[in-house]
Amino acid sequence: MKLKHFLNLIALSAIMSSCETILNIDVFTEVYPDGSCRKVFQNRVPLSFMLGEKFENGQNYFPQTIDTTQWDVSWKYKDGNINTKYPIQQSDIEHFKIDTASLDNDFELTISKHFDSVDEMNSFLSTNKYCGTQASYTLKKQFRWFFTYYTYTELYPKLNFKTNLLPISNYLDEHEAEYWFNGNTQLLTGMNGIEINEFCQELERKYNRWIRHLLWNEEYRIYVDNYDRLQLNISKSEFISLSDTIFNQQGDMLILDMSHVLDKYFDTKQFSEFINQNVSLFDYDETNGDFFELFLNPQSVVHNNTLKLPGKVLSGNYYQLDNNGLMSWRVTPARVFLKDYTVYAKSRKANWWAFTVSLLIVFAAMYSVFFIKKNKVLLIQYIFVSLCKKI
Predict the structure, then answer these.
(1) Can you tell me the mean pLDDT for 263-276?
(2) What is the mean predicted confidence (pLDDT) over 230-234?
(3) Which residues, 6 or more positions from 293, have their beta carbon under 8 angstroms from its beta carbon?
(4) With bands split at pLDDT 50, 70 and 90, how would you rate the model's confidence at 333?
(5) Is 376 inside any structural domain?
(6) SS3 269
(7) Is residue 301 in a domain?
(8) Domain ranges, residue 192
(9) For residue 250, what pLDDT band results from cuts at 50, 70 and 90?
């Protein structure tokens, strides 16, 4: 994709907040009392994916390669019955009465796997390029006689980008950025709904300006790298120093054609002519691709995570806990921009056998005390009677 076109389209989508989700997947993890667990991924997919395609228009529907020798696979078409054959063949289309003209994601596909331990997931689960580096999973199991405590964590490392990004701190302070990316609501303490709305609108304005500045720097860098091919009346160092000045003059205006802005500022046609003659220089930079895909469309990837732990939930950083003990999180690229993002939860399961054993021990102790005391009295009585007879 050309950077110039990329700049226009993505800037529009960023400012208008018309984000298209690339990967929206449900992820369920259940931890069992013995420490083993089950991982389930579920998503809606089109017919082409069911026929064996892993990608549809550059879109990946699962973070895992679906290997039927490793994963249990099941699916259903619309509201039909559950089937296990995957991938299906062209000859199966008529059998399952599939509408080949439909472009919708009509199939609900589920893959699941049982792991002997939570740690086993670390070596088996592959990374998803849209979610950054490999997540790590841990389970701490603590036996405390009457109760067993389970502490489960998923760590999503902070995203790393090769490019030298304009610091977010140029536009948002530490607390604002923490709220914008990670939802630290302490910043909203004391605000009413109207004030929160105004505050969030101002944060969005500053965030969008940061995005535009990043895009500006990316294209301006190409002109700097090719300064010698431009016939400008200023030195290279002066040209570099003017970047922020020219950008700031645009205010909050959406910049759709940077070459036009530079032509106007320097009173020349050099920039528009250069970009027209050297289109290949403005090819989309794949090394920075993850950044542009993720943060110009920060909701491009959504993992709807749910977790079930043994026993009663005691604490966690979930946003929802239902009556069945299911905890919910949403993992998105935005949450791992500033720092690592950790999903954690703690539960407590009663060891009923321990209560039973403890009661038996108590009863045994009480019986022993009573029995010994009773026998002691009988012994004293026997000695007393024996002495009396001798007298």
Answers:
(1) 92
(2) 90
(3) 22, 130, 300
(4) confident
(5) no
(6) coil
(7) yes
(8) 187-284
(9) confident
SS3 167: coil
Mean pLDDT of all residues in the chain? 82
* 76 neighbors 108 (Cβ within 8 angstroms): yes
Structure confidence at residue 15 (pLDDT): 44
Closest CA to 208 of 68, 372, 10, 5: 10
Same domain, 79 and 142: yes
Number of domains in the chain: 2
Provide the β-strand partners of residue 77. Answer: 107
| Unique residue bearing structure tokens 């105004």 | 198
Angle at the Cα of 172 from the Cα atoms of 166 and 177, rounded to 5 degrees: 100
Average pLDDT of the segment spanning 114-138: 77
Whether 289 maps to a domain, the answer reads no
The whole-angstrom distance between residue 204's C-alpha and the CA centroid of its chain comes to 21
Q: How far is CA 69 from the centre of its chain?
A: 27
**Digit-coded pLDDT (tens) for 354-381:** 888 878 887 777 766 666 655 655 555 5
Instruction: Round to whole Å and give the CA distance between 185 and 16.
Output: 24
DSSP for 335-361, written as a single string: GGTSS-EEEEEEEEEE-HHHHHHHHHH
Instruction: Taking residues 73-95, report their average pLDDT.
Output: 90
Q: How many Å apart are CA 176 and CA 198, to the nearest integer?
A: 14
- Judge if 116 and 208 occupy the same domain: no
The model carries a pTM of: 0.78
- Binning the chain into helix, strand and coil, the percentages to the nearest 5 are 45, 25, 35
CA 37/CA 115 separation, integer angstroms = 5
Residue 94: inside a domain, yes or no? yes
